[in-house]
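Lab notebook: predicted structure, single chain.

Context: the supervisor wants predicted structures on file for every construct in the current expression panel, including those that have not yet been purified. This is the next one on the list. No modifications to the sequence; it matches the entry in the shared construct table.
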Amino acid sequence: MSKLPNITTSIFTVMSKMAAEYYAINLSQGFPNFPVDERLTDILAKLSKGNVHQYTPMAGYPPLMNQIAKLIQSSYNRSINPDLELLVTAGATQGIFTTILALIKTDDEVVILDPSYDSYESPVLLCNAKPVRVALNDDYTPNWETIEKECTSKTKMLIINNPHNPTGKILTENDFLELEKLLSKFPEIIVLSDEVYEYITFEEKHISAHTKDFLLNRCIMISSFGKSFHITGWKIGYTVAPEYLMKEIKKVHQFLVFSVNSISQVAISQYLDIVDVNLLGKFYQEKRDYFQKLLKNSRFELKPCEGTYFQVASYANISDDEDVTFCKKLITDHGVAAIPISTFYSDHKDQKLIRFCFAKDNPTLESAAKKLCDI
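Prediction complete. Output recorded below exactly as produced.
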C-alpha cells in the first residue's frame, strides 16, 4: 500500500524526459548549461588526488562550516555558532525533507503557499501530518489575511520561499511585518524559509529571514551552493536553525545521509575564499534581460521576474489549451521544453502560464527564442 498514493512522477522529470526524447531545448528543469567557474574546477581537480575521500563529521566539514558562518555574517550581519546552529546537507531538498521529518508530528498542520515547489508536501504527508495549501494572490504576493485564517492550534509550520520558485517574486519589508504579526498570534508556529536563490535577485534586493530578529529563534533557513554556484549536480546545501531545533534536525540527518560528499565540501570551503557571491545577481540579471529582449516580438506575455533564474510567461494569446497540454505540444511541435505553472498548485489552477529557465548560455537562449517567436 502506497504511503504517497497521490504523488506521481515529478513534472520536472516528465518534461526533461520528453525534451530528451524529442531533442527539444530544455528550458524546463532548473539547471544551468554553461561551464562552472574554472577556479572551482581547478580546486576540485587538485583535491581529487588528496586525502579528502572519506567521511567528514556528521554536521559538516569544519572549515566549510566556518566559511558559511563568515558568509552569513558578511551577507546578513548575523553571527551564528557553526557547531550548534549549522548543518551541511545533501542539497537544499534534503535539508527541507530532514527538517520537516524532524519537527512535524502526526496530525500537525503545515501551511504551504501555492504555487509551491513540489518537495514541500511529500515529507509532510510522510509524517502523517496535513499540508494546508494556501494560494498566493494573482500577482504572487502573500495574502496574509487568508494565511491567518488557515492557521489553527494544529499549525506547527509555515513554509516560505524567497525568492520564489516558480514566479521569481521576492518578499517585501511589509511582508515580514505581516509575518511578525501572524507569529505573535500563533506562538507554536515555526517558519521554514527556503532561500536557495538568495543571491539571485535583481532591481530589488533579497530580504532574508536571517536579518529579522523576531525569526531567529523560530525559523529554519535553507540555502544551496548548487543554485548559487551553478553546480546543481553536486547536491550540496546548508541549513541554519536555532540550537534547540537543530538538535532535532541532526538526529534525522545522521540516519538519513550521515554526512555529505567530502570532496565537494572541501572544494567549496576553498572556493569561498575567492568567489564574490554579490556578483551573481548581476550575472543572472543580464541573462534575464537578454532572454526578455529575445522574446520581445513573440506572442508570449512575460511576467515580472524579481529573482531566481526563472521567467513566467502567459501563452493566453497563443492557445486555449490547458498548460500541461500546451507544454507537451511545445516540446513535440516546437522543440522547447517549459514547466506548466498549474503543477505547483494543489488544485492545479490553470492560468495559461508556463515557466522557462533562463540559466542557459546565450546560444541556447537564442535558439529557444527563435522557436518561441515562430509560434
